[in-house]
Each structure stands twice: as structure tokens, then as C-alpha cells.
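Model it.
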Amino acid sequence: MQTKYYLLLILFFLRHAVFSQAITPDLQDASKWKLVNRTAESFNEDGKKGIRFNEVADNGLMILQGTDFSNGSIELDIKGSSKMQQSFVGVAFHGKDVKTYDAVYFRPFNFKTDEVARRMHAVQYISIPGYDWQKLRTEFPGKYENKIDPAPGADDWFHVKIVVNGKRITVFVNNQQNPSLEVDKLNNNDSGRLGLWLGNNSAGSFANLIITPLKNN
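Modeled.
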């Protein structure tokens, strides 16, 4: 009953929330972005115009300069890979610096695995520095990560919509009506920088970024 109640509240919010004009940052305009521990190259292929990152150790970011994000939606297309433990791709937001932020990210190599436990680790929320995935999985198993159903192909593009409203974070994949993940933020940061995020030893491609703030934030 509680899950159904939360779903009804989310659907009500999405129908009645008043969004401001969408922002569509150019991912290929280097003057608008700050790269952290990655290099990037532009691409135009398969009807998508975006950016592709290299694969190196430790986390990487590409941070949008001059724009703070508080509440609203973040939409984009992401492509990772089926490389085991080498495809962690997502979005960071409410960033204070390169070591303090929230993030939602995906593990494409877990999307369609035959291992049930791994499928439950397809999408993840973290709050850095206090709550990385290890701490959350140990102390709150199954609460801050989930499966994606139906799951995209591990090497395919997939569409992501992340809705942030106060403490609530809701994640939709491939325009599904039901969210793949619903969590409450683990800190009191209510605004900050937004960026593309890559995990340890991960490459990834991103395209079609749309940021739509909630009105009157």
C-alpha cells in the first residue's frame, strides 16, 4: 500500500508541477564545461550529437559552468557498455565541489544479466563523500539501487529522466511510466552544479541533455 501511495504522489507531482523553460546546454562547447579526470571527444552519429569520454581510473566529471540546479528534471541519452565492472555512467547534481555532490548512475553490464542479484544493481543513487555505493549497499541493502524493467541492452543507448523535487529523487528510464528508482536525498544540499559522471575505469557517451528547472525555485 505504501509503495502504491508514493507512486500516486509522484504521478500527481509530474502532472501538476509547473516547469520553467528548458535549458539545452551544448555538450560539445568546451567553454561551457569543466573536465575532471577525463578527456572528451565530440561525435555526431545515429542521429545524436554528443560527447564521448575516455576510460581511466577513478571517477570523472564534466561540470556545467555558470548554472546552478536546484529542483526540476534532467533528461539525456546515455550509452555505456557490457564491460564487467567497467561501465558506470550517470549524472551528478547539487555539487559543491568535485568531491561533494549527489549522483544517479547506471551499471549497463548489469542490465540484462542472468544473475538476479546483479540485475538489482542496475541503477544507483549516491551522495558523496558520506554515502558511496559500498556503504549504502551494506547499511541499506536494496534501498538506494534497483533493477530496470524492461532493461535496455548493455551496449545500447537509453534515455534517462531524473526528477529532483526537494528531498525526493525519481528516476525514469526509456520513458517508462513507472520509475526505476525512488529515493530521498541523504544530505541537505538543495542546489549546486550539475555534470556528467563516470565511475572508475569507465568510458561513456552522452547526448541530448535537457535541464528543466521547476518554476519559482
